[in-house]
Amino acid sequence: MKMLRAALLATALSLPLVAGAYAATPADALVIAQNIDDIVALDPAQAYEFTSGEINTNVYDRLVGYEAEDTTVLAPGLASEWVADDAAKTITFTLRDATFASGNPVRPEDVVFSFNRVITLNLTPAFILTQLGWTPENMADMVSIADGKVVVTYEGDFSSAFVLNVLASRPASIVDEVLVTENAVGEDLGNAWLNTHSAGSGPFVMSDYRPAEIVRLTANETYFRGAPAMKTIIIRHVAEAATQQLLLTSGDVDIAKNLTPDQIASLPADTVKVETFPQAAVHFLSFNQKTESLTPPAVWEAARYLVDYDGMTETFLKGQMEKHQAFWPKGFPGSYDETPFTYDVEKAKQILADAGVETPINVTLDVINSTPFTDIAQSLQAGFAEAGINFEILPGTGAQVITKYRERTHQAMLLYWGPDFMDPHSNAKAFAYNSDNSDATYTATTTWRNAWAVPQELNDKVTAALAEPDQAKRNEDYIEIQKEAQASSPIVIMFQAALTIAMANNVDGYVNGATSDFVYYRLVTKE
């Protein structure tokens, strides 16, 4: 353990020791212990993981966004103002006077380049922007410059309010065209370079990234909202919760993000404080429809009665998750908060028997190899075995599990999902829409990844809700869609996350909104 602590300090910063064995981090540096092995990519045109979103938010700006001061309000970003014309399906943005961390000015050309780049590369999150009707062939017409302003044009039966939410999302981050072009290799538009470097105008610069080891952010002194008080942010990969606890209580880190409820309860109140942040992520169990034994709808229905929702949330998930059984998180307009399913083995057995489903069913269950995921998997294994559904748990790193999920090579999967942008369509499309289930057509949704060919009637309802101009009626439509998906889908939604984070008492100003895209370090101070 001494070697681990020494390695942490050596690779992060030279941290002075104070009286006794207690270490103290510098006043202008924030050191974080966190499991970051889910990172697959950091280029905002490719990044699609939770930790990647957190990094992107702190190094890039967008035209508009939900900012640290109030994560519930859509605010100006690099655009100081905008004018929407719903009839013409255009939004015209006026850029503020800002510079990239490189010193290059933020120009309308950078916005055009950034959006074109996402569409041209066509990597995982590109679908968020392509839903505006953007293609490589029409981008010159869809995003243009007029009188020094950026004119965004969109196609589709939705309002400008929906478009603004899309433009506040991660792939709409604005990158420095000059810097990215200088570091491009072949036709990659700087993709390889941006997966280990940054080229943004945000409050921090990514100055070091070593996979499953460390992310170092350095303050951007020219940030248009003012330079952050923390000159360095160190996010250290520490997978083991017990090690995170030790590093926090010894003063070697300022924040520990992945502690268990028992560890949280045992922290010393004189040096550590605990804050809880409601999260938009929903946690689910899903069944790949490429596995024949998992295709009967009776298996899906029975599964909903084999999850010990209360048993988990009242014990090892207490303070981390609450029972939630619909795809749009509680606390947002359009959520459906009823929880009709309870742990009932006899009912599950009867459902399987009435449908003529033969048991036992043996199935592999992929899970991220860290708490609380492995604990949830073991609870599911025990509960499902009571009805003759036997899980073989296959643990892996976050990146391994997510990659397997995207390739549709799993059988059952225990995972989580956060909205790509704060609009119920984001999750409706992920959990209740799949217009092309073919292997050749990759789609970043849970429906496609589980090979579920969504009934056309449900697809049509999702499309209609997106186009509904009346917001109250639109929210009602999404509630009905959630009810339908909740009743009959191979995706069993179980919980909504609540993130409990422990930090040193002298840390103030840390903001952790409902998604990883709303994690902000620029307001942090240390007394």
From TrEMBL:
This chain's protein is named Peptide ABC transporter substrate-binding protein
Domain Solute-binding protein family as annotated: residue spans: 75-438
Starting at the broadest rank, the lineage of the source organism is: Bacteria, Pseudomonadati, Pseudomonadota, Alphaproteobacteria, Hyphomicrobiales
- Write out the coiled-coil annotation as residue ranges: none
Family to which this protein belongs = Belongs to the bacterial solute-binding protein 5 family.
Q: Keywords, A to Z?
A: Signal
The record ties this protein, via Pfam families, to: SBP_bac_5
Give the GO molecular function terms.
Answer: peptide transmembrane transporter activity
**Annotated Gene Ontology cellular component terms:** ATP-binding cassette (ABC) transporter complex; outer membrane-bounded periplasmic space
Give the superkingdom in one word: Bacteria
Q: What is its main location?
A: periplasm
Signal peptide extent: 1-23
